[in-house]
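Dear Dr. L.,

I hope this message finds you well. Following up on our conversation about the binding site, I have prepared a predicted three-dimensional model of the protein together with nicotinamide-adenine-dinucleotide. For your records, I am including the exact sequence and ligand specification that went into the calculation, followed by the structure tokens. Please feel free to forward this to your student if that is useful.
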Amino acid sequence: MSIPAYDFTHKTGLITGATGGIGRDVARLLFDAGANLVLLDLDPGSLNALAVELGDDARVAALAGDASSPEIIDGALALTTARFGALDFVVPAAGIYPESPVTETSDELWRKVMDINLDGVFRLLRAATPVMADGGAIVNFASLAGHRGSKNHAHYAASKAGVIALTRSLAHELGHRGIRVNAVSPGTISTPMVEALVAERGESMLSGTPLNRFGNSMEVAQVAAFLCSDGASFINGETIHVNGGLFMAG
Ligand SMILES: NC(=O)c1ccc[n+]([C@@H]2O[C@H](COP(=O)([O-])OP(=O)(O)OC[C@H]3O[C@@H](n4cnc5c(N)ncnc54)[C@H](O)[C@@H]3O)[C@@H](O)[C@H]2O)c1
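The resulting structure of the complex is given below.
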């Protein structure tokens, strides 16, 4: 039997991108520690499968839809309050990572990446913070790309740099309510998002990583769960790197 590291009993978490590699491990950790969950992602079948895997209907609610849409966000928050009454943790993990050199990036693609990776997080947090309980926590997902830039992913890198600035700004605004706002900044983590990249450039990427491997989604989710927990009670406005030393090593 595994003993959960944290006790999130009677707490409620809203996770977007909940059936992605990292989102589903955040869901597993929060759920195992006792939290109620509202799961939001695009595909109803995958959401249903995750809800079944978690196995407790009473503590899980799911909504399929675009996490950057104001209507879907309102729907997710209405579902949260109807089912659980309060909202303690918000973890916006939805994101996209299309490959495109700057000179080949259309306005439409640039806007789409910004819309999902940055604007959607802003819209979700703008709507969620008024209904969040004081003392809650927000954990955003930035990326190494947001610090360093990323070849053929300028739109993505710019969106993640925006997430870092949004995180810090919101930490200033919500501190008086005891709501902490932090971000996790993963390096290369083996999830569907980076499958193509790893297949193409995996070997060369590993050479710059002192731990000489890619991370796994649970190694990122654990940091997100920690940032939700009382163990992180004085961590606020930070962006925590999870990259096996790639950032430091350069
Ligand atoms: N995997 C990595 O190496 C890595 C590195 C740095 C940052 N990140 C970030 O971590 C977060 C999670 O990434 P992941 O690796 O789990 O990716 P993933 O592709 O496995 O999961 C992303 C999830 O987001 C969902 N999604 C995409 N657009 C959506 C939308 N408009 N509405 C609702 N859901 C949507 C997808 O359906 C998918 O389930 C992302 O923000 C990503 O940018 C990942």
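In brief: The longest strand covers residues 132-141.

With kind regards,
A. P.
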